[in-house]
Amino acid sequence: MTRVVITGMGAIAANGNGYQTFVENTLAGKVGIKKITKFDASETGITVAGQIDDFDPAQVVGKKEARRMDLYSQYAIQVSQEAIDMAGINEENTNPEDMGVIFGSGIGGLTTIEEQIIKMHEKGPRRVSPFFVPMAISNMAAGNISIRFNAQNMVSSVVTACATATNAIGDAYRQVKEGRAEVMIAGGSEAAVNEIGIAGFAALTALSTNEDPEHASLPFDKDRNGFVLGEGGAALVLESLEHAQARGAKILGEVVGYGSTGDAYHITSPDPSGKGAARAMQQAIKEAGITPDQVDYINAHGTATHANDSGESKSINRVFGEDNHVLVSSTKGMTGHLLGGAGAVEAVATVAGLLQGKLPANVGCFEQDPECQVNLVTKANQDQPKAEYALSNSLGFGGHNAVLAFRKWSD
User: Fold this and answer.
1) How far apart are alpha carbons 64 and 211 in whole angstroms?
2) Are residues 266 and 215 in the same domain?
3) Could you list the active site residues?
4) Which of 182, 198, 230, 405 could form a disulfide with 243, with the two C-beta atoms 3.0–4.6 Å apart?
5) Which residues belong to any copy of the Ketosynthase family 3 (KS3) domain (predicted)?
6) 18 part of a folded domain
7) What SS3 state is found at 106?
């Protein structure tokens, strides 16, 4: 089987626009959560979100192109362009038929859906935009990426709620590993920080009602009371080792395993035993050809909901034992929860952490819940230059569990 390496990454989140800024701020523990200003959220009962304030679609996407894309697709194009540029991929060194795209979104064009339904209600159905459908459907980020970069291999979109991007990267990894493509652009994006997005999750009582951005997203904390909705996304360029070496590419990391399971338990709640997530981690570890004691770090799903954090902690202890030494953190205390884009920004943070020998700290845990018996990354222990293997967990509504295993690059 082919070894699969990472040669490019792009990211945008509330705490950083662009790979360099996102990684620097994430490893420094910078919280990007802030008061919602995109719309009047007062009637929703929710005050803060992982809102992005510094995105200009004209800079990378282009003004004309952006008018025909929902915001989630605009984020997808920007991060993919950054990843492709970093990788140095072009039609001179890569056959378009050997490059594909697997890129997902949990919800798709929610901003467009909200705007166009309001327009239809107020002005009638004949005023609905002719671009409504291609802007709203959740596969169009993948389609737009494919068109932008002339990627003619498999072009697909994954929709598995909050596990979306991790499944997309995992499926793309398999596409390269099994010899069906040389290069894949993979990841996920989301743009649900709007009135219907906030109102919908608030109606589920899933969101934190805390008004303080520094104390709203509290992964593994005893006082956690819900997640903070975030937006943005990330893309990774996955490439066969042989193809990357042939063109002299700089290698940033390696994907070595992937696991995906279903809880078959509940539409929104994870199985409290954690056994489904545990099996996904075990699958990723097995495919990597390592043992659990070789895993140095887990980027946890860590949503800061009671059910997720306690269940995920149990799943980690199922795999690694009650008295394990694996370090764990959730980056959602800084970015909020990007839903379908979460696994992508978290994959970037994980790979960058291994690359730099510095793991992201678990920002937002002020007093750890005794139900969450995991070894959290803090500022005191985040420097880990010898860390070699890491997992990134994503767990979605519907019982979707997806886990990626990464290895710090070395020949």
Assistant:
1) 37
2) no
3) 162
4) 182
5) 1-408
6) yes
7) coil
pLDDT in tens, 7-51: 999 999 999 999 999 999 999 999 999 999 999 999 999 999 999
Q: Phi and psi at residue 262, in whole multiples of 5°?
A: -120, 140
Phi/psi at 163 (5° precision): -95, 0
Average pLDDT, the chain: 97
> Would 178 be classed as within a structural domain?
yes
- Is residue 52 within 8 A of residue 17, CB to CB? The reply is yes
Residues 238 and 263 occupy one common structural domain: no
**How far is residue 233's CA from residue 349's CA, in Å, rounded to a whole number?**
12
Do residues 286 and 388 share a domain? yes
Among 221, 167, 211, 226, which residue's Cα sits nearest to residue 362? 221
Residue 405 scores a pLDDT above 80 = yes
What is d(CA 47, CA 229) in angstroms, rounded to the nearest whole number? 11
240 and 356 housed in the same domain: no
List of residues 6+ apart from 101 with CB closer than 8 A: 142, 145, 146, 149, 151, 153, 154, 155, 156, 184, 185, 186
Beta-bridged to residue 187, according to DSSP, are 103, 235
**Cβ(195)–Cβ(49) below 8 Å:** no
Domain boundary (192, 223, 246) is at 246
Same domain, 169 and 29: yes
In a domain, 252, yes or no: no
Whether the per-residue pLDDT at 411 is higher than 90: the answer is no
Band (pLDDT 50/70/90 cuts) for residue 239 is very high
Tell me the average pLDDT across 57-83: 97
* Confidence check: pLDDT of 1 > 90: no
For residues 321 and 309, give the distance between their C-alpha atoms in angstroms, rounded to a whole number.
17
- Bridge-based pairing of strands 253-262 and 375-376 is unpaired
- Tell me whether residue 390 is in a domain: yes
Angle at 49 between CA 265 and CA 197, to 5 degrees: 55
- Nearest in space to 298 (alpha carbons), one of 187, 400, 374: 374
Number of domain units in the chain: 2
* 316 phi/psi in degrees, rounded to 5: -65, -45
Q: How confident is the model at residue 410 (pLDDT cuts 50, 70, 90)?
A: confident
Q: In angstroms, rounded to a whole number, what is the distance separating the alpha carbons of residues 235 and 80? A: 5
Taking residues 327-335, report their average pLDDT. Answer: 98
Domain boundary among 204, 220, 246: 246
Range of the domain at 353: 258-407
Same domain, yes or no: 71 and 126:
yes
Measured distance CA(300)–CA(83) in Å, rounded: 24
